[in-house]
Amino acid sequence: MSKHKRTLRWMRLDNAAKIYPAARRRSWSNVFRLSVTLTEEVDASVLQSALEVTVRRFPSMATRLRRGLFWYYLQELEHAPKILPECSYPLTPMGAEETRGCAFRVIVYHKRIAVEFFHSLTDGNGALVFLKTLTAEYLQQKYGITIPCSHGILDRHAPAGEEELEDSFLKYAGAVSAGRSERTAWHLSGTPREELALTCLQVQAKALLDKAHEYGVSVTEFLTAAMMQALLQMQEKAVPKIMRRKPIKVLVPVNLRKLFPSKTLRNFALYVTPELDPRLGQYSFAEICKTVHHFMGAQVNAKQLSRVIATNVGDEKSLAVKLLPLFIKNFVMRAVFDTVGERKSCLTLSNLGMVQLPEEMAQFVDRVDFILSPQAHAPHNCGVISYGDTVNINFIRNIEESELELSFFRALQEQGITATVQSNGG
Amino acid sequence: MYCIHCGVKLADSEKVCPLCRTVVPVACPEQVERLYPKKKKPARQLSPHTAQYALIVMFLLPAIICLLCDLQVDSAVGWSGYVMGALAVSYFCLALPGWFTRPNPVVFVPCAFTLVGLYVLYIDLVTKGGWFLSFAFPVIGVFGLIVTAVVTLLRYVRAGALYIVGGAFLALGGSMLLMEFLMSITFDSVRFTGWSIYPLAVLALLGGFLIFLGICRPARQTMERKLFL
Q1: Which of 3.30.70.260, 3.30.559.30, 2.40.50.100, 3.40.630.10 would CATH assign to domain A192-326+338-423?
Q2: A418 part of contact set with chain B, CB < 8 Å
Q3: Is A203 in CB contact (< 8 Å) with chain B?
Q4: B93: buried, middle or exposed (CB in 10 Å: 19+, 13-18, 0-12)?
Q5: Nearest-CA neighbor of B116 among B97, B83, B152, B92?
Q6: ipTM, 2 decimals?
Q7: Which among A131, A263, A311, B158 could bridge A163 via Cys, Cβ 3.0 to 4.6 Å?
Q8: Smallest CA–CA separation between A124 and chain B, in Å?
C-alpha cells in the first residue's frame, strides 16, 4: 500500500512576527486567546476531527516555529495537534520547546472552544477566521448542518490562496519611513502573582455604542478614553507630585486589512498610542475622548501607517542585519524590546470589534472572548470583543492588585454604563 | 447579585468580587459553572536541581574516598589522581549539561574534548610518558574537531544530516590511519603494520553508503520504510 507523503510548506516569519520569539522568556511569551462558548457541551472527539480538517486550510497557522541559522521560520504541521484540557488560567507561557512542536493550542472546557496562538503565527483577526472556521466545521460534523462560507468562515476543502499566506508588510511598505522616537509612558506595578488573573467585564453593546456616539467617537476610542481616565486617576494617587507624573499612553492595535486591500491571514496589524500628559492639568472625560479621537483620526490612515511599515521593514532588509547569526539577532532584538519596546505604553487595549456569524451558526454560539497575555514588563493588558448585544472586556494581569479593573469600571459607571464581572477565581 | 462595596454586578460563579476583593455574603452554589476550572495542585516532582546536587554527591563521594585511601597508604596523591580526574571528566561530560535547560552541544562537546586532553596530559606528566604532544594531543584534537563539526552542522544546518554523518565516518576512517602513524613514530615498540586499513575500509564503506543514501532519494525512502522505529 503506497502512501503519498504531503510536502510540508515552510515560511519566513512576517515582519511583525520576528520580535516575538526573540523577546520571549521562560515566564512570558506573547500569546493571545480567542474562544467561543457554545450552547451545548463540546464533544472533544468531534472537535479533534474538525481540527484535522481545518488545519489543512490554514498552512500558515497550523505550524511549528523552527530555528534557522539566520532567522526563525514556520514549518507546516503534518497533523493537527491534540486538543488540550483547560488550565485554571488562560495563556500559560508558550516556551521554545512547545512552539518547536506546535505554536498554537486548541483547548476545550465544557461548552468552550479556545485557541491560543503564539503571536508569530497570526494576529487577532487571522485567529478569528481560524476559530470561526474551526467552529463551523465542528458544528457541521456534530449536528450535520450546513454552514455557508461567509462572515469570515473559509471553505475547509479549498486550498489556501497565496494572498492569504503573504507578508503584507513587505507589499504595503511606503516609500518614506517614519521616526521612532516616542516618550516613555507611566508604568503600573504591583505584587507579582504566579498565575494570571482574568477579569471579564460584560457590557451591553447598545448602551456602549450609544454612549460612544454621544461623545462623537467610536467604541474603541470610547474604551481607550475610559482606560486613560482610569490610568490618570491611578497615577494621581500613586504620584502626588504633578510634575513627576509620566505620560498616560494606551497602545491600540490597528487592523491594517481595513486600510489596505490585503487578504493575509498572517500578522498584519500595527498600533497607535494615544497619549495624555498629566502635567498639563485635569482632563474631563469629553476632553479625553476628543484627544483620542483626533489622535486616531490623524494616525490611522493608510499613508501614515505605510510610513511606519516602511520603517519596520527597512530594518530587516538591511544586509548587515540579514547576515547576523540568529543568536546575535535575538540578543539585540531582546535588548531593544526590553529597553524600548514596552516602555512606550501603559498597556494594550485591543478591540477586535463585532463578531458576525451566519445565522445557521449563530444559534449555537453563546459568547465570544478575546484575551491577550500581559506585557513582559507591564502587568496588564486588555482584549475587547463584541458578539450579539454583549461586549466582553477581558483584563488580564500578573499582579495581585485589581485596581486598574476597578478604576476602569468606575470610569464606565460614571458614564452610566453598567457591567457584569466574572473572573477565573483569582 | 451585586457587590456591596463597589456595586458591580457579579456573575453567579463569583465568591469574591474580582474588582474590590469583597467577599460575597451569599456563597454561590457549587453546581454553577466556573469560568475556569479550579486550580489543581501539581504533582510533587523532584526538582531538577535536587537531582543535580545528588549527582554531585555521587561523583564527589568516590573521589574523596579514593583520595583518603591513597593518602592513608602512600601519604601522597598517586593513583587517586587518575580516579579523581576520570570522575571530573565524566561529571563534566555527563552531568554538567543537566544544569542547563537546553544545553548547547556545540559548546559542551569541544569543552569536553579539551577536558579529556587535559586529563590525558596529567597522566602523561605523572607517568613521564612523553607521548602527549606527539600522539595524544593530535589524536584527541582530530577526534574533537570531527565530533564538534558534526554536532555544529547537525544543529545549525537543517538538511543534509546523511552527508554530514557520512562525511564524519570518512574523516574518522582517515584519522585511523593518522592514529596508527602517530603510534608508530611515538612508541618504539609499535610498528606500522597497516591494521588501520581495516577500520578505514569499514568506516569508508559506511560513510559512502550514507552519502549515497543522501544523493539517491528512492534508496533513502526504501531504507526509511525498512528501518523506521
Answers
A1: 3.30.559.30
A2: yes
A3: no
A4: middle
A5: B92
A6: 0.81
A7: A263
A8: 22
